[in-house]
């Protein structure tokens, strides 16, 4: 058996079910080997799209996804998606061919680029070490939640696997648990708090963390919020208050800013989640729990840092708290707070004045009507831009696997590919993607992929015919905006040319075909070219991002 065939067999045996990519000469054979052993290969039209599909699939499935790339240019085409995945600690294995001869046109420092993007760089070093190298890379993805770039030199993959080569696996190490003294200090902070709020981030989506956090919150009297990437985690908890940060509803922002103890669990407590610190009261205590000691206190000073896994820390703290206090505390869980959470927590419960006019629909009106029309079993993905809070907050999601937020790198153009990867990870749910007109056109290559794969993707274009974030940042009365304002385009016609169903929406009545499309059990995408009103910068850019 050649090394290239053994790589595909090994990864399938380790549990890889789906790979994404664009096949070239360098990755042709090991991609075929992976498919021959039962894995599905999703052929994208561009490596950048493939990278983001794989990232989204891994987030929404809980599996390690593989991204298969050609050496050199195939690899560099995928770098933005790889950087997003690395920043988000996605369990993504980038399997890329590598040219090792400096005379090759494809020769570049692929390992150096991986490390610069925040990924782990590894290599299949030789036929003798190939199986161990692959297993080690896979284990880093699965057990450390890291994005790994595994370089496969072309000359190595074409050699014979030695008869004595042995397969192996790497077992996970146990997550750290804070020292007893730190747990005792944490208990003291909780006992001194009257209005504690826990903010759960991506680290709280690990096995067992949700249940452990809910038990600790019940014992502490804490309200349960999430960062954007963990949205939906506590939807079924009566004391869940949705997303903390730029997307917070007025009530959520009020409750978080009124807390006297804010605890981040696997959450960076960054400018997105804390609105540049404005959501943390002047006299509030702050604690942070993370498996990465360098993450603790990185974005703001904390009164207590706990190095440990979310579930492990929560369980130990619950036991110590109940042993000390003898029972659960009421804390922030008062009847009045409970009533307000039930009546006015979500943006869909907040009154506003519909400003639709002149053939353009208010994006709030658009989003609320879509939320009413669409089935509850959905998976919502978003691109980046001035529009992004409307689908993020007005479209409800069923749980933490119903919202895919590839925004750690804040790159425009990832939305379509994000929606595709998320849809393949959760095929029983209606996939909905919110994009701006700029991001839609950047990522339009993968619209053909959605049609070819018969994915019933609902693409909602918030089309204001400009790069709205830049326009509103610099202002209509500032410097010339010619570079960021464009003529209105018939994006519905463009979508039909790709094989999609498509409509143009200027008022809510124009959305009627969406209901008909859903009722048919669709097997091809629908694109909504919504001509939205865009008179000012969105509140989440103004408040959370400093624009």
TrEMBL record:
It comes from the Bacteria. Residues 183-316 form the Thiamine pyrophosphate enzyme central domain. Keywords: Thiamine pyrophosphate. The keyword Lipoprotein does not apply. It comes from Nonomuraea monospora. Pfam families: TPP_enzyme_C, TPP_enzyme_M, TPP_enzyme_N. The keyword GTP-binding does not apply. Belongs to the TPP enzyme family. Residues 387-529 form the Thiamine pyrophosphate enzyme TPP-binding domain. Transmembrane segments: none annotated. This is Thiamine pyrophosphate-binding protein. InterPro entries: DHS-like_NAD/FAD-binding_dom, THDP-binding, Thiamin_PyroP_enz_cen_dom, Thiamin_PyroP_enz_TPP-bd_dom, TPP_enz, TPP_enzyme_TPP-bd. Residues 3-103 form the Thiamine pyrophosphate enzyme N-terminal TPP-binding domain.
């Amino acid at each position: 058996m050649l090394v290239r065939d053994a790589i595909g067999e090994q990864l399938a045996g380790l549990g890889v079910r789906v790979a994404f990519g664009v096949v070239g000469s360098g990755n042709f054979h090991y991609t075929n080997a992976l498919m021959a052993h039962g894995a599905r290969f999703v052929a994208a039209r561009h490596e950048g799209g493939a990278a983001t599909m794989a990232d989204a699939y891994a987030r929404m499935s809980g599996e390690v996804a593989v991204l298969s790339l050609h050496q050199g240019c195939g690899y560099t085409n995928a770098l933005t998606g790889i950087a997003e995945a690395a920043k988000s600690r996605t369990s993504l294995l980038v399997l890329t061919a590598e040219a090792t001869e400096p005379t090759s046109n494809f020769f570049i420092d692929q390992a150096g680029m991986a490390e610069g993007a925040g990924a782990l760089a590894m290599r299949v070093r030789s036929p003798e070490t190939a199986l161990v190298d692959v297993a080690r890379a896979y284990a880093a993805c699965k057990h450390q939640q890291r994005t790994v770039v595994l370089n496969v030199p072309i000359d190595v993959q074409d050699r014979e696997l030695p008869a004595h080569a042995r397969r192996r696996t790497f077992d996970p190490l146990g997550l750290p648990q804070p020292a007893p003294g730190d747990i005792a200090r944490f208990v003291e902070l909780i006992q001194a708090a009257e209005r504690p709020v826990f903010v759960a981030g991506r680290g709280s989506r690990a096995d067992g963390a949700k249940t452990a956090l809910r038990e600790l919150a019940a014992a502490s009297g804490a309200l349960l919020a999430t960062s954007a990437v963990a949205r939906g985690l506590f939807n079924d908890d009566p004391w869940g208050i949705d997303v903390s940060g730029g997307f917070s509803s007025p009530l959520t922002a009020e409750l978080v800013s009124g807390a006297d103890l804010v605890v981040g669990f696997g959450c960076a407590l960054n400018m997105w989640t804390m609105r540049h610190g404005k959501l943390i009261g002047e006299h509030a205590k702050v604690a942070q729990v993370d498996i990465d000691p360098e993450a603790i206190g990185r974005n703001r000073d904390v009164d207590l840092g706990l190095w440990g896994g979310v579930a492990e820390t929560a369980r130990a703290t619950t036991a110590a708290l109940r042993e000390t206090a003898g029972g659960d505390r009421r804390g922030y869980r008062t009847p009045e707070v409970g009533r307000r959470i039930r009546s006015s927590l979500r943006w869909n419960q907040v009154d506003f004045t519909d400003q639709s006019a002149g053939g353009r629909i208010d994006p709030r009106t658009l989003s609320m009507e879509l939320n009413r029309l669409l089935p509850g079993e959905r998976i919502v993905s978003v691109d980046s831009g001035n529009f992004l809070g409307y689908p993020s907050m007005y479209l409800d999601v069923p749980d933490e696997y119903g919202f895919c937020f590839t925004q750690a790198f804040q790159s425009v153009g990832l939305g379509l590919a994000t929606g595709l990867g998320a849809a393949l990870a959760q095929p029983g749910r209606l996939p909905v993607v919110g994009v701006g007109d700029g991001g839609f056109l950047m990522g339009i290559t993968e619209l053909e992929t959605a049609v070819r794969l018969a994915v019933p993707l609902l693409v909602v274009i918030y089309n204001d015919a400009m790069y709205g974030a830049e326009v509103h940042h610099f202002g209509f009365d500032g410097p010339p905006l010619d570079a960021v304002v464009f003529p209105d385009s018939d994006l519905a016609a463009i979508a039909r040319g790709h094989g999609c169903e498509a409509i143009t929406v200027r008022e809510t009545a124009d959305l009627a075909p969406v209901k008909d499309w859903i009722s048919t059990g669709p097997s091809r995408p629908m694109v909504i070219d919504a001509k939205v009103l865009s008179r000012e910068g969105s509140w989440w850019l103004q408040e959370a991002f400093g624009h």
